[in-house]
Design brief:
The protein is mainly β. The protein folds into three domains: about 150 residues, 6 Propeller (Neuraminidase); about 110 residues, Galactose-binding domain-like (Jelly Rolls, Sandwich), CATH 2.60.120.260; about 160 residues, Jelly Rolls, CATH 2.60.120.260. It contains one helix and 32 strands. β8 and β9 form a beta hairpin. The radius of gyration is 22 Å and the shape is globular.
Length: about 475
């Protein structure tokens, strides 16, 4: 086995998708996937290209939304049975070495575990014959591109999942039983084909149980909002629009109790979809989204000139953007890529420094309208500062938060805003949102928790 090799054709190179430092894995259907780093510098998605003929030819490269955005760096991948493990510094800087696990061949990653919260660099993964996972990575030091030492960590599946290992089954949506839509060929889709159409319905059969339901949709600049329902019950509104490139991404629909037998999944709106995934097990990690000022997909300067600063310390990631005090007309926009509908808390990170704005203005757009927040950046720097509002997101992928307006002082919309999702059970639906959790700088969107985390028997309701 593996005693001889044949050279295939090179994977396509495209200036818009500068893939390099790649890993390769094979799906159950025999297709081979390259997953690689996006160029150099900044906070980026990964890039993928797929071969359905054993490496003889490759699909055009596309954005991989499954891994989220993090500092452009080499990463590790290894298959463990029918699971796929992925290691990388999960941050906008080379820090926070994290390993995640996928149950759907890299379409999404359900659980993650931080191995080292400090400086972390390149990494690689391996598996021993007894199932022990080995992670080799660079760590520590003060130079941004060179680790002080190389270290190895070893762990098992129980540690990685924190005892939450799950099972998953997937169904291709490009089915002859679908009502409406057309089956189209696409090497980047699961199974090499996808379902395209308006107001499409697809049947699926399950055993009785409670499942996390997720769908994989194509994303591009021209994508429009799509409403998803199961058996006629609306589950959420998805906005798969992608500001940079195109690709596929999994969106969680919800945790649903399903009876044994046939059910129907419906997309209302124009959609290109390729996979439905049903997962049984403890709840997935809540999404934690950071929109960084070094991310082309998540940050833009709306008006005037904002200087990019890379000197000094205390900013989140690799840089910050600053603007001198003025009349409040200078603006930037953060666009967090929210992966599922829900209630979120938002926070912003800025560096602690002298001469900063006392009234930096942030306007948060969400499903309920918009919320205007003033932040006194003369204090609280070097940490995630809550924006004091709970966001109801009904359109994953479509949130945006213009920020950085000021009248006095220097505003610093330095890294991302962070958005964090909150779980709550159907028995304790809150009428008043709690105050957001403390987060970090840049724009951070993180789910909040009402009471205890949702257990398998509880259904997550979204607003």
């Amino acid at each position: 086995m593996n005693r001889s090799w044949q050279r295939g054709t090179p994977a396509p190179l495209d200036p818009a998708y500068p893939i390099n430092e790649s890993r390769v894995y094979q799906r159950k259907d025999g297709s081979v996937v390259i997953n690689g780093r996006w160029g150099a510098g900044g906070t980026r998605y990964r890039i993928t290209s797929t071969s359905t003929d054993g490496g003889q030819t490759w699909s055009p490269p596309v954005v991989d939304g499954a891994t989220g955005q993090f500092v452009a760096v080499d990463a590790g991948m290894v298959q463990l049975g029918d699971r796929l493990l992925f290691s990388r510094p999960d941050s906008s800087a080379r820090a926070n070495m994290t390993v995640s696990i996928s149950y759907d061949e890299g379409a999404s990653y359900r659980y993650s575990r931080v191995v080292n919260p400090g400086p972390s660099y390149y990494s690689d993964l391996g598996v021993l014959s007894d199932g022990t996972v080995l992670l080799v990575y660079g760590r520590d030091g003060t130079l941004p591109s060179f680790p002080e030492r190389i270290t190895a960590a070893r762990f098992d599946l129980a540690w990685l999942t924190n005892g939450r290992d799950s099972t998953s089954s997937s169904q291709e949506l490009a089915s002859a039983d679908a009502r409406g839509g057309t089956v189209v060929s696409d090497a980047n889709a699961m199974g090499g084909k996808a379902l395209r159409g308006d107001n499409v319905e697809v049947p699926f059969d399950v055993a009785a149980g409670t499942y996390d339901v997720a769908v994989r949709l194509q994303r591009r600049s021209g994508s429009v909002q799509v409403r998803v329902s199961v058996d006629g019950l609306a589950q959420g509104l998805i906005d798969p629009k992608l500001t940079v490139g195109q690709g596929y991404q999994v969106y969680r629909v919800g945790t649903l109790p399903l009876t044994a037998g046939r059910h129907w999944l419906r997309f209302t709106g124009a959609v290109v979809a390729d996979q439905l995934t049903l997962t049984s097990g403890p709840p997935a990690d809540p999404p934690n989204v950071v929109a960084d000022n070094d991310s082309v997909a998540s940050f833009e300067v709306v008006s005037d000139t904002w200087d990019r600063i890379t000197t000094g310390t205390g900013y989140f990631g690799q840089s910050e953007r600053v603007h001198a005090g003025g009349s409040g007309t200078a603006k930037v926009r953060f666009r967090p890529d929210v992966p599922m509908s829900g209630i979120y808390s938002a926070a912003v990170w800025y560096r602690a420094a002298a001469g900063q704005a006392s009234n930096a203005s942030f306007v948060v757009h969400h499903a309920g309208g918009q919320s205007a927040v003033k932040v006194d950046q003369r204090s609280g720097g070097g940490h995630w500062v809550p924006l004091g509002c709970a966001l109801a997101s009904r359109n994953p992928g479509g949130g945006h938060i213009p920020g950085g307006r000021l009248v006095h002082g220097t505003p610093q919309p330095r890294h991302q805003r962070h958005i964090h999702r909150r779980h709550h059970s159907s028995h304790r639906r809150p009428t008043q949102p709690r105050q957001p959790m403390g987060l970090t700088r840049h724009l951070l969107v993180v789910p909040r928790h009402h009471g205890r985390l949702v257990r398998r028997s509880q259904r997550v309701r979204r607003r």
